[in-house]
Design a protein that fits this description.
heterodimer, A: 351 residues, alpha/beta, Glutathione S-transferase Yfyf (Class Pi), Chain A, domain 2, Rossmann fold, 4-stranded parallel beta sheet, B: 342 residues, FAD/NAD(P)-binding domain, 2 domains, 7-stranded mixed beta sheet, 28% strand, elongated
């Protein structure tokens, strides 16, 4: 593996990322799966980077899952997205951050559509005005939340309490990065580093001391793939996709997986749990399952926030082995804030 | 300096044309940016379909060069302009050459395989180009992986940089199919216990004895041909290359592990060709090679009176086609210069 080759590609896929004053569009499913991630993102921007970010309670879904499942018409999706932009305009912002990778892909696709088909933009304006009385302007800067953390990764580095280094051996931890398909596979030039060798999370691993693992099935879908999971009969495909990735990364003795997409995080976490129970298979270093974190959770963890306040107990794969390697102290009893802990299967009950 | 014709490019087209024009009584100056003559052919080991030594072609052309032909090596053109019926060429040696006509024989560059990012060239250790494999053959280097082992399974990927909408090169580079067949046979000769696979869209065996070579590669050397284009290559922990490809004849996806992957890189206009297109306002074919005034009747003429083109500066060509094209250009220039004298 020649890192110089990757650097050459990364240099040709850079994008403009606004420096401050962001309008934040939350994800529908992330707030349910691991709600701490989005809160930590806002905290990091406000508390660590001193940035202005607006969290708007009036926003709605982007319709992404409905759109990709062909149950929401494109015209409806465009009108909903136009309303989000109208809310951003009303709040006085030009820079739009998507928390969700599906949303980011969809917003990008809609803006591209409007750019290439101005008559469609006019139709959307008409639909939005007739339905809500609103008008809108397209954002000056549209990015995914992981782009922001990437942009400020070195500023954050100076504030980190921990690094992606084993605190006893001093060796870099082996970290897999998984990028949501809709981040750059649809529009490679809209993603930091492009679609084949994205840099957006690899850059965090590099900057924060870890060793990025490039394994053969790195590009493969996480297993969410809407039609694999939303159609119940297809769920076997979802599991088999994830399994293919886990088996491929197993020889690298992975300590951590980080993701930037709600679905990827959920499925890489959940299907490891299923594989552990159903097939008695564990894929990480030291014959344990591999903790799966979002990029914000990782940033917050290394910045020194309490793991349980970040919400790491919401993941099904235990994170304690990772905390132990990094040298983060935590209180086992506070993991579930005094509530009854869930029943942990024996194979995963190693913490 | 004043001359009748400046030939730009010292590859096989430029050498052949320079000699022929000189022999027809015209004063010729040949300009070559490198310090050696022969172009890409000088870098090749054996030629398809008959295993002839590529160096024998270059030796023949050099041996037949007229003694008093002016050849400027290591010379780059910094500017070229047309005033009245003459062209003024400035070089990196601060020379100015005035000429009545120009033959553009600036050839091609090998496609930059980095642009096919999904194949991992420049990233994965055991992904190489056909040009690099040929260089190994020419210099008698052992065929080894980066890990120092003889590869037991080698894949050849056809059409890298050619016939590819994604990178906006829709044309066929013409020689890559048969080159892959030739190189796969050579691998089997050098490494008899290896397995070789060619991944192709369709095989364009258009030349005399090409089809025979293709048949021989299968019947005598056991080269396996799989119809399908790679979707991606990736690297295993021990440096092998995993490829994903659809076998479109069987209608099923394949995942195979290779010890070495050879990318059959096609032709793109050389930097010199692109430079002259800009400087002389030459028309090009869809932003690629130099356009002929008429593809059938005036193949060596360009839209600029007095500027002619030969060889792969106008389109991908085999060596045979390049020679024929160079000789055709010589006739066109001879007619042009003769009519001017009259």
């Amino acid at each position: 593996m020649k890192i110089e080759g990757k650097k050459q590609i990364w240099s040709s896929y850079q994008k403009e990322i606004a420096n401050d004053n962001y309008y934040y569009a939350r994800s529908c499913i992330r707030q349910n799966f691991f709600p701490g991630a989005e809160n930590m993102f806002i905290k990091i921007l406000r508390e660590q980077l001193n940035k202005n970010i607006f969290d708007d309670e009036r926003q709605t879904t982007c319709t992404g899952i409905g759109y990709h499942s062909s149950i929401v018409l494109p015209e409806t999706t465009m009108t909903v997205i136009a309303r989000q932009f109208s809310l951003m305009n009303e709040a006085g912002y030009d820079n739009f951050i998507c928390s969700c990778v599906t949303s980011f892909g969809l917003y990008t696709e809609v803006i591209e559509t409007w750019t290439h088909f101005p008559e469609t933009l006019e139709k959307t304006k008409e639909y939005l005005y007739k339905s809500t009385g609103r008008t809108f302007q397209i954002p000056q800067n549209l990015v995914h939340a992981s782009d922001i953390i990437y942009k400020f990764r070195y500023e954050l580095l100076h504030k980190l309490k921990y690094k992606l280094i084993h605190h006893k051996t001093g060796k870099p931890l082996n970290v897999v990065e998984h990028i949501g398909c809709h981040y750059a596979k649809i529009f490679p030039h809209k993603g930091v580093g492009g679609a084949e060798y994205p840099h957006v999370l690899a850059g965090l691993i590099e900057a924060w001391g870890g060793n990025m693992v490039d394994y053969p099935e790195r590009r493969h879908c996480c297993g969410f793939g809407f039609r694999q999971y939303l159609i119940k009969a297809n769920r076997g495909y979802s599991y088999s996709h994830s399994l293919k990735k886990f088996e491929s990364m197993q020889p690298y003795e992975v300590d951590l997986i980080i993701t930037n997409c709600p679905g990827c995080n959920y499925f890489l976490d959940r299907w490891q749990y299923v594989a552990a129970i159903e097939e008695k298979k564990l894929f990480g270093a030291e014959n344990k399952a591999i903790p799966v974190l979002t990029f914000e959770e990782l940033a917050a963890l290394l910045l020194g926030y309490d793991p349980w306040k970040i919400g790491l107990q919401m993941h099904q794969i235990p994170v304690e082995p990772l905390l132990d390697k990094i040298g983060i102290t935590y209180n086992k009893k506070e993991k579930y804030f005094g509530t009854k802990p869930p029943q942990i299967p024996e194979i995963l009950n190693y913490c | 300096m004043k001359t009748d014709v400046v030939v730009i490019g010292g590859g096989i087209a430029g050498l052949e044309a320079s000699t022929a024009l000189h022999n027809l009584g015209h004063h010729v100056i040949l300009i070559e940016k490198k310090d050696i003559l022969g172009g890409h052919v000088a870098l090749w080991d054996k030629l398809f379909p008959n295993n002839k030594n590529a160096s024998s072609i270059i030796h023949y052309l050099k041996d037949h060069l007229p003694q008093n032909l002016t050849i400027l090596l290591s010379t780059e053109i910094t500017n070229i302009s047309k005033r009245n019926n003459s062209f003024f060429i400035e070089t990196n040696f601060h020379q100015t050459i005035e000429t009545k006509s120009v033959l553009v024989a600036t050839g091609y560059d090998v496609f930059n395989a980095h642009l096919k990012e999904e194949y991992g060239y420049g990233i994965y250790d055991n992904v190489i180009t056909s040009a690099e494999l040929e260089e190994m053959f020419k210099n008698n280097k052992p065929i080894l992986t980066k890990q120092g082992k003889e590869p037991s399974r080698i894949g050849f990927v056809h059409c890298v940089g050619s016939r590819d909408r994604k990178i906006n090169n829709l044309y066929c580079s013409k020689v890559c199919c048969v080159t892959a067949v030739k190189q796969a046979i050579e691998i089997r000769q050098k490494l008899p216990f290896s397995e070789t696979y060619c991944f192709y869209m369709d095989l364009r065996m258009y030349g005399l004895n090409f089809e025979e070579l293709y048949n021989e590669s299968q019947e005598k050397y056991g080269v396996t041909f799989i119809r399908g284009r790679l979707s991606e290559a990736s690297e295993t922990i021990d440096g092998k290359i995993i490829i994903k490809v659809e076998d479109t004849l069987l209608g099923r996806p394949l995942k195979m592990t290779m010890d070495m992957l050879v990318l059959m890189v096609g032709m793109v206009p050389s930097a010199g060709t692109s430079f002259l297109i800009n400087k002389l306002d030459l028309l090009s074919n869809n932003g690629h090679f130099i356009a002929s005034s008429d593809e059938h009747l005036l193949a060596n003429y360009t839209n600029v009176n007095g500027v002619f083109v030969a060889g792969t500066a106008s389109s991908p060509k085999s060596i045979d086609d390049t020679f024929a094209d160079a000789r055709s250009a010589v006739l066109a220039i001879h007619q042009y210069l003769t009519s001017q004298k009259m």
